[in-house]
Amino acid sequence: MGTLWSRRGSSVAPSSASRREAGDGDSDDDSLDGLVRREDIAQFPYVEFTGRDSITCPTCQGTGRIPSEQVNELVALIPYSDQRLQPQRTKLYVGLSVLLCLLVSSLVAFFLFPRSVVVEDAGLRSVTVRFDHSSKKVLMNMTSTLNFSNPNFFSVLVQSVSCQVLYMKTVVGTRQLDNSTTVLPLSQSQLNFTVSVEIGSSAPYVYAFCTMPIKVHNIVIFMQTTVKTSYMVRTSQNSLESYRYIDCGANTTYHQMGVQRQRPPLA
Known about the structure:
Layout lengths: L1 H22 L3 H17 L43 H26 L5 E15 L4 E14 L5 E12 L2 E14 L3 E13 L4 H7 L7 E14 L2 E14 L4 E5 L2 E4 L5
Antiparallel strand pairs: 1-2, 1-8, 2-5, 3-4, 3-6, 6-7, 7-9
Organism: Oryzias javanicus
InterPro entries: TMEM106 (IPR009790), TMEM106_C (IPR048509), TMEM106_N (IPR048511)
Family: Belongs to the TMEM106 family.
C-alpha cells in the first residue's frame, strides 16, 4: 500500500508542477479561450428540460423566446393562487359586486314591478228626477263616484269608463268616458260621472208608480261599470256590478253605497 501511494504521489506531483510552470506563459491563451467559450455559450440555443410532470412551452417552442409579431396576440395567464393577485381581496371584491348587483336588481324590481290598480264604486252622489207627462216617461240623471287607489311608484292613466244601467234586464241608460283622469303614484283619486236614464214604454207602470201621491217611490236598478287603466306596458280592466235603490218620485242628493260586486281585474 505504501508503495502504491508513493507512486501515485510521484505521478501527480510532476503534472501539477508542470502546470504551474506553464501557467505563466499560457495565461494569455487561457483568457482568449474563455472569451471564445462565453461567446459559444451565448449563441447556444435555449433547451427546456422537461420531466414526467411537465411539458414543453407550446408558445416559445422550446426556444425560450416569443416571436415579435405575436407580442400583441398572446395573453399571460397567472394562477389564482399567486399571492400577487391577493386572492382574499379578490374574493371580497367579487362577493361585494354580486351583493350590489342583487341589491340593485331587487330595488328596480320593487319600484318598477306593476301592481294592480284598486277601483271601488263609491255609490251615488245625487239623482235628479224629471217626468215627461205626454209620453209617460221617467227621466233621471244619476251621478256616481269611483275611487281609484294607485299602489305603484308611477302614474296610472284611466283610459276609459263605461257604464250601463238596466231595469228589469232592460238597458235604460249608458255612458262612455275616454281619457278621464290620471292617478299619481302612491295616491288616490275620485271620478264622478253622470248617466242619463230613461224609463218609459218598456215599463209603463214605473211612471204610474213614481207619480203616485205616496212618500217613498223606491225602484231597483242594476249598474255595470267597466274601467280600463294603463301603466308602463300593461293594460288592465276592472268590472263593477251593483244594485241601487232609487226614489223615483223626487230629487235626492246623498251618498249611497248600495250592494256592489267587483270582478277581478283582467290584465
